[in-house]
Structures are given as C-alpha cells and as structure tokens.
Amino acid sequence: MINQLSNFTTVFLGIFIEAAAFLLFGTLASGLVEVFVNQDDIARFIPRDPLRGAAVGALMGLLFPVCECGVVPLTRRLFKKGLPLSVGIAFLLAAPMFNPIVIASTISAFGVGPILFWRTSLTLAIATITGLAFASQKRPELLLRPVAWATISGGSGAATALATQLFQRPGWREGLPRVFTIAMDEFFEMGHYLVLGALLSSLLQTIVPQAMLLTLGSGPIVSVITLIALAVLLSICSTVDAFIARTFIGTFTTGSILAFLVFGPMVDIKSILMFLGVFRPRPVVYLVLLPLIMVILAAVTINLYTTW
Amino acid sequence: MTLRVQRAIQSAILTALGLFFLSKIWTGTFFWYLSDRFLLLTLVAAIGFLVIPAVVWLRQRVDDSHLKSTEHIHDGDQEHIRRQDQASLPIHRLIVVAIPLILGVLIPARPLSASAISNKELNTTASLNVGNVAKSPKADTIAPNARTVLDWARAFNYASDPAIYEGQQADVVGFVYRDPRLPAGQFLAGRFAITHCVAEAVAIGMIVQWPNDAPAEDTWVEVKGVVKVAILNGKPTPMIVAETVQPVARPTRPYLYP
Which chain A residues touch B21 with a CB distance below 8 Å? Predict the structure, then answer.
C-alpha cells in the first residue's frame, strides 16, 4: 500500500511538474493577449467565412506553439477578445499538435513520411470540422462559461466600436504587472483542473494494468480503441508523444498509432477537466465525442484499406 | 476572503512551487520524474513562479500608496474600493493547486519501484528507440560489459540471431524483481526506461540466473556474469548466468533513456 502510494505520488508529480511549466507559459500568453491585444486586432486577421475561419483557427498553432495545457487558458482569453467560437475550437483542438515543436518531434520519431502526413492532415481536418460544427451557434454565451465570453460579443456595433475605441495599448512598464496579475489568476483557475486531471490520471495508472491493454494490439478496431484509451489515460504531452508511439510499432496497427497521435493531443483526462473551465458541460461532451468518432473512423479505415 | 488575502495566498503557493521545483533540480530528484529534456523548461518555470508573485506584490504596494495619498474618499468611492477588494477566486481553487506541494512534502520522494511493474508493461525485449529506425542497434557499438539492461534488450530485439551474444560478459545494475513467470533460482534485474516523463515509464528486465538467495525485491544490485539466450513467452531473452550479485546504492539517475 505504501509502495503504491509512493508510485502514485511519483507519477502524479511527474505529470504535474511538466504540465505546470506549460500551463504557466499558456497563462502568460493569455495575459499578453488580454493586455496588449485589441478585439480589432483579432477581427482584422480572422476571416468572416466560417469554413475559412475554422481552417485559420486550426493553423494558428504555428504562431502559438502551446501544448494541450497551455492552449486552454489562451483560447479562453481569445474568446473574451471576441474570437469566433468555431475559430477558437479549431485552435483548441489543433494547436497542441499542429505547431513547430510537435511537427519536429514527429519527424524525429517517424521521419518525413506517411505518419507525419496523416497526423497533420487528420488533425487539421478534424479540428476544422469540429470547429465548423459549432459555427452555427450564434450565441456563444450558451456554450461558454461566463468567465470565458466577451461581454460585448453579439452586442450592437456601437458598443463594439466604443470598446475598441476605449482600448489603449499600454507600455511595457505599465502592462507587464497587469500581465503577471492575469497570469497568476489564470494559473489558479486552470491549474485546479490540471491538478484534478493529473490526480485522476495517476490514480488510473496505478490501478489499471497497462500490460492488459497492450495485449490488444492487432485487431483493426480493438487496437484503435485501445490506444485511444491509453492516450487518454497516460495524458502525455504532445511534444514527446511521437517517441512513445514509436514503441508501439510492430505491436499495434498503424491506424491505432495514428489514433494515439491525433486524439491524444486533442483530448485526455487533464484537458477534459480544463475544457470545463471554458465551456459548459454539454459542449465539452461534443468536444470529446466529435473528434473521437472522426478519429476512430479514420483510423479503422486506414487499418482496413491501406498497407504501409 | 478579501482580494488582498487571496493575493497573499496565491503568492505564497506560487513561491512555494518555485522553491519546490528548484529543490528538485538542486537535489537531483528532478530526474525521478522527468528526463533532462525538461530541465531547462522546469528551471524557467520555477523562476517564473518566483518572479510573478514578486512583481504582483510590488504593483500592489504601488497601488496602495496611491490610494493612501488620496485625501478625500467619498462614500461612493469607498464602496467601489470595498467591492474591488473582494476575492475573485473561491478558496478551494487555491487549495487544490497546493495539493502537489502537500503531497511532495508529506510523501517521501522516491523513484518508481519494483511494485510499479504490476501496472507497467514489462519488457525483456524492448524495441525502445528514438529517432529513425536503425538497422543495427547502438548496443553493438558499446562494449558488452558497459551495456545497460536497455542496451541488452535492444540488442536482442534487433539481432537476427541473438546467439551471437552468448558468452559475452555482462555487468548491469538494476533492482531485483521476482517475476512470477520465472522458476526458482532466477530473478529479473529491472530498470525503468522513460522518454520524457515517469508517466510513460516502461519496465525493462534482464533475467538473472543465481542459485543462491537473491536479495530482497527492490534492492539495487550489480550483476556480473556471462550472457546466454533464454526463452520467455516464446521470445529470445537475454539472461545472465551470474558470477556475482552485489547490492549497490540506487543510481542517482535510476531511469534509462532510449
């Protein structure tokens, strides 16, 4: 019992120490956006067309290389600055994978080949489609928690123009303490979801025998479900999950390895809890289910109809 | 709770987190949780945890001095000030973020032990490899008695005929694990291999044939002997016919890195 408690604590602290660093950077990015970015700035770069907007959202990770811990507070802050729902959701799902760091680690683990191509393509496609699915919702306040939506989103043009007019970009000396104050509050707001998620993940890792899961590697469907479950359970940072996935070659199907690489950065135990800090519960269910269904379909199709 | 009290608690927790991270790095126990890929990142985060509350506190002092210099505060202003001084976060969110500190202090720190193998996959022929596929494992370029448990596992995994390694001298360090699949007179010299975080640790083991009483499970030992090919679960597995099994101190870096 003491050994199990010790192992549990070791795993928990491993997950937390790594994730806390990324969360801190995400909250600092969020603070910078709040203090130095105007709604006008965002509106200037985001297409009005929902499809193009969602696609741009999925590509934004190239500018904001944050992992799944850091992307949540940043997305929440961008929503408050008037980022359309579809764009933010596409960014939320794609950025943890589609950023220079993760692309580089994928190349390092698998080379420039089918895995890299399918990982990036499926991530962009699924994130864009999921974002698009939310584009029809014209009232973001029905999906977002009050702390996460712009108080003037959906308001009159006059109110929007006034708020934009009132915004004054501060100098660094005045702005930086405000950035830090916002980052500190965000760290505690999102951090408590991170801690709860890390506790749950560590507990499951201590209780659930992974060896049992890893015997289910060969079936075209079961292997996909198994590695998705493992990705959610392990809650590994996307910056290094490619190296973990490499160890499954030969034991698991190609489709299941892709499912691990695509779904893991989008959804795991930590991120599900952090989503609840941004969205109301029902949208979180859709945020998990929509990518899950698409990933399973894509991965099983790859298993059944391709040979690499 | 007032905002002032909230800020004080937040600052205390963040500062404690920064010091906690720094202590892990300073004492070397950082490597019980993460690989050195994350050392710099964690160091930067630790400094951030110290700097942020300090800057917020300094800013608070400047705001307070501006407030004190205001000579006439009307009733309406006082009410506005009172409302602004109300906490923005519930207390339980602050306490939850302190849980890692509480666990880190209350539970004695230690790396993963043999008892974790029941939940982790145990590899005796690990295909752990980082980077593009290598036609021959790095292990072949390492002298046999300098190879780790991981090097041996990889060598056997990639060799077309592992019998080429029979008769080579091995000198490995690992913890004792009594695998239920092994007969009496055998145990595993185990290590955990991690790529970046202990959460994805994989247990690696090398069979040791030792007719004498093996040390207690979880004891770190150095095993010297001659390598033979054993079959475990239908796969060729490296085995050491041990000449000596000596208890040793746990390595400062207990994990292996593929």
Answer: 17
